[in-house]
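Design a sequence for this backbone.
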């Protein structure tokens, strides 16, 4: 699955990997790797940070499931991706509760 961030904001989206679970010093997140033809480097961070790898994997699985769910819909392009983002954020609110849902669990932080 490709990144919404990359699709909307990058001139060379073909140089970015599919979304995957990545880790930084701040925690786990869903994002991409940028291949600049010399060495790979972090590309995009499409979610906030998660405390565990399992949480980040669940977020990625949720995004993939939502994309599959909407693949046959009449929505296309950016509208479809925004639908997926909205549904993902609703699921995170449901899981973690609205009081604890800050920017760390939102897409497009």
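Sequence:
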């Amino acid at each position: 699955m490709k990144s919404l961030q990359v699709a909307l904001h990058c001139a060379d989206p073909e140089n970015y990997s599919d979304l995957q679970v990545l880790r930084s010093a701040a925690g786990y997140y869903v994002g991409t790797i940028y291949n600049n033809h010399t060495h790979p480097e972090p590309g995009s961070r499409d979610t906030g940070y998660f405390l565990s790898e399992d949480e980040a994997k669940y977020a990625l699985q949720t995004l993939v499931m939502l994309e599959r769910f909407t693949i046959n819909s009449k929505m296309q392009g950016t509208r479809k991706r925004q639908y997926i983002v909205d549904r993902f954020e609703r699921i995170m609110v449901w899981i973690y509760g609205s009081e604890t849902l800050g920017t760390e669990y939102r897409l497009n932080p």
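Strands lie at 20-24, 27-35, 40-45.
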